UniProtKB/TrEMBL annotation:
The record marks 126, 349 as: Interaction with tRNA. It comes from the Bacteria. It catalyses: S-sulfanyl-L-cysteinyl-[protein] + uridine(34) in tRNA + AH2 + ATP = 2-thiouridine(34) in tRNA + L-cysteinyl-[protein] + A + AMP + diphosphate + H(+). It comes from Actinomyces slackii. Keywords: ATP-binding, Cytoplasm, Disulfide bond, Nucleotide-binding, RNA-binding, Transferase, tRNA processing, tRNA-binding. One of its GO terms (biological process) is tRNA wobble position uridine thiolation. This is tRNA-specific 2-thiouridylase MnmA. It holds the Pfam family tRNA_Me_trans.
Length: 369
């Protein structure tokens, strides 16, 4: 197959591209430039897709002997990820920009351009196991497609990939899905002579250069002072903008008075209409049910509408909990009854359902409402 290898400049994407070359594919490397802001140049790879990363990506491509290009996707990234991030916080929800980036840029935008240029599939360094579609030599065919957790559970990224859906995933290759560990991938990179073998992992939100998310939100959305209240409406303090807080947050509340019982307070809710941040005790964070919209199914036709023994995960590295999940395909919604309480569930988060014989297959994804 003729495939695009998304080279981020890190070790994972470099080894994934190398494995694609070994598999006999015609590979072309591409680095996605997601920002034109020079502040995105970092030391130590705090985030991904910075300017310094493009040089590392080019170096890896040269050693692999594959063509290499830099594609300017900064406009798509700004519109589909950054603007969405800000509008979600403005609406009082808690988005996951990595989920949106995987869906709307690293797959949608990359595939749009790649397919227009005659490529069959994309190769990335994500940790997830994928069968069917391009993974079995049938790009674009979603039948028998199966997305599952990576062999290395500590690095598993199936949670952020689920939103890509059957169409996107049917044209994807994840060569690192069966890698036993990140250490093994680094050792392979070193053995191949790749210069990024010891490069640190990226982390944090890539478009927040200093890692200060609240500061980024305040600079982008402005200051909007308002009350911080208890569940019964008692004013406990004040804040500079409800959008700077997220459900489950404990630190940085700025409250001078402790709770009457001496226990810590947590953010329970943000209310954009009244500009209030509601805080209270930890037990009020616990949820035993949830509803979600924008359903994405990753199951074969003929699935049941209710799954009584599955697990639900609401954070990229969160603990999955057993649940009974009911889907309404016509309305594109999902509802879940949790078999044990889950703490700090926030609107805007991605909910991913896992099941199958081993409990590691992705069945569906939706956005918590």
């Amino acid at each position: 197959m003729r495939v695009l290898a998304a080279l981020s400049g890190g070790v994972d994407s470099a080894v994934a591209a190398a494995r694609a070359v070994d598999a006999g594919h015609e590979v072309v490397g591409v680095h996605m430039a997601l920002t034109r802001n020079r502040a995105q140049t970092r030391s130590g790879s705090r985030g991904c897709c910075s300017i310094e990363d493009s040089g590392d990506a080019r170096w890896a491509a040269e050693l692999l002997g594959i063509p290499f290009y830099v594609w300017d996707l900064s406009e798509e990234f700004e519109e589909r990820v950054v603007s969405d991030f800000l509008s979600e916080y403005r609406a009082g929800r808690t988005p996951n920009p990595c989920v949106r980036c995987n869906e709307r840029v690293k797959f949608d935008a990359l595939l749009e351009r790649g397919l227009a240029m005659g490529f069959d599939a994309v190769v990335t360094g994500h940790y997830a196991r994928l069968s069917g579609g391009a993974a079995d030599g049938h790009p674009g065919d979603p039948s028998n497609l199966r997305l599952a957790r990576a062999a290395d559970r500590a690095k598993d990224q199936s949670y952020v990939l689920a939103v890509s859906g059957m169409r996107g995933l049917s044209r994807a290759l994840f060569p690192l899905g069966d890698a036993p560990s990140k250490a093994a991938v680094r050792a392979e990179a070193e053995a191949r002579g790749l210069p990024v073998a010891a490069k640190p992992d990226s982390y944090d939100i890539c478009f927040v250069a200093d890692g200060d998310t609240r500061g980024f939100l305040e600079r982008s959305l402005g200051s909007r002072p308002g009350p911080m209240v208890s569940p019964d409406g008692q004013v406990l303090g004040h804040h500079d903008g409800y959008f700077g807080f997220t459900v489950g947050q404990r630190k940085g509340l700025g409250l001078s008075r402790p709770a009457a019982d001496g226990r810590p307070r947590y953010v329970l809710e943000t209310r954009p209409a009244t500009n209030e941040v509601v805080v209270g005790p930890e037990e009020l964070l616990r949820r035993t049910s949830m509803k979600a919209t924008d359903l994405v199914l990753l199951t074969e036709p003929g699935h049941e509408s209710t799954w009584p023994q599955v697990s639900l995960q609401v954070r990229a590295h969160g603990r999955p909990v057993p649940a009974t999940v009911t889907i309404d395909e016509a309305a594109a919604t999902l509802s879940a009854e949790l078999h044990e309480p889950l703490r700090g569930v926030a609107a805007g988060q991605s909910a991913v359902v896992y099941g199958g014989p081993d409990g590691d297959q992705v069945l569906a994804q939706a956005t918590i409402a």
